[in-house]
Amino acid sequence: MKQKITDYLDEIYGGTFTATHLQKLVTRLESAKRLITQRRKKHWDESDVVLITYADQFHSNDLKPLPTFNQFYHQWLQSIFSHVHLLPFYPWSSDDGFSVIDYHQVASEAGEWQDIQQLGECSHLMFDFVCNHMSAKSEWFKNYLQQHPGFEDFFIAVDPQTDLSAVTRPRALPLLTPFQMRDHSTRHLWTTFSDDQIDLNYRSPEVLLAMVDVLLCYLAKGAEYVRLDAVGFMWKEPGTSCIHLEKTHLIIKLLRSIIDNVAPGTVIITETNVPHKDNIVDSICQCNTPFNYLFRCF
């Protein structure tokens, strides 16, 4: 398994993923194995029924939404729904939760990690891994704008004169957004979805390590299913469509191998934006099964 991980890293990064980076990754995986003790169901079947909800949809006078939902689920829904997909419950700034400010926290107005872990004691949990972009209000992005060491390459700066006409656009908004840096220079950053959602730079090994940390956190907190949001856009190559590129597929396979190493049985579900026939063909080649409105399962 470790050899498969290093093979994918070599294919994606070549020599830029150094021995130091690899040791950091190995240390993270070994630590995660000690934390992740919950056994996953080996296979899904027709008895697996998923409820999809936001964490703040259930209200009561004396409890926050998550503990309120826990009570409601336990009393009314547990016999019907075996799985609960909690749509982004992290602090966020826009796009209904899909512009994440802090991947590692639960939005305080909804509840706390303890509430989610309690829900996981009576259901199987799915979390969203918003892996393509994060909020312009996040500390990572603030550190980037302030040019703090370690964050220099976290986001994607592009010369605005670059020909990006081939890039697939999911929204009719500017692809590049100008931001002022601490030294008063202006950088035009890649923003696939909005000027509040800054695309992460997976060419940087440090970004990969940081996002693996997020993924391992979710597994440790009880996620048995992980949905990769907007995953098709992860890798950028000017002059191409920048969607579903080969290195994007390699990163997903890398994440699959990492998960198999620390939490076997966890299901990865990818949000895919392709014609249905292509979704089915690619699923047969690489995945377990297609899932829900053009989701794909690895």
Automatic annotation (TrEMBL):
> Biological process GO annotation list?
carbohydrate metabolic process
InterPro entries from the UniProt entry: GH, GH13_cat_dom
Name of protein: Sucrose phosphorylase
Report the SUPFAM superfamilies cross-referenced here: (Trans)glycosidases
Domain of life assignment: Bacteria
Q: Which PANTHER family match?
A: SUCROSE PHOSPHORYLASE (PTHR38784)
What is the source species? Escherichia coli
Boundaries of each Glycosyl hydrolase family 13 catalytic domain copy?
83-271
Alphabetized Pfam families for the sequence: Alpha-amylase
